[in-house]
Amino acid sequence: MTKFLLAVHVIAAIVAVGPVTVAASMFPPAARKALEAPDDPSALATVRLLHRICQVYAVAGVAVPVFGFATASDMGVLGDTWLIVSIVLTALAAVVLAALVLPRQSAILEGAEGAERAEVQGDGQEGALRVRAVDRAATVRLAMFTGIFNLLWATVTVLMIIRPGSTTGA
Known about the structure:
By secondary structure, the protein is mostly helical. 86% of the residues lie in helices and 0% in strands. The chain has helices at 2-36, 41-60, 63-75, 81-121, 125-162. The longest helix is centred in the middle third of the chain and has 41 residues, at 81-121. It is elongated, with a radius of gyration of 20 Å.
């Protein structure tokens, strides 16, 4: 049973967390492109798609710790330090994603859609430029939070592979 749970846990991590890390990393430069070219519908569509991928796979990512706990329980390692650190880092990554990455993506997307509407309605070049300048700074901050999220997951991955101090083998 342990091998099955471990396989599901690893597959869930690859299928759920992988797309979030890639799409979240692609979002800031795609958003900058959409903000620089508000008349390009494909640029805005890309930003919408990346945000949707992050939202959907973040929910699917709940399966990773669920199967992780089941695997750890079956292996009898719930009290091991490497696992406790991994759990804390996973929880921190979830908080970063839910509280810092996804809401900022939503705000940037709304700003890009607003710039597109301002451009279509002819509300003036100055207003659209001001929106783009504010959103460009927001994309830089978002890139930082996304990097933190990705670094947390990379650290968890390394801990899961190396398992320092584990007596269950490497």
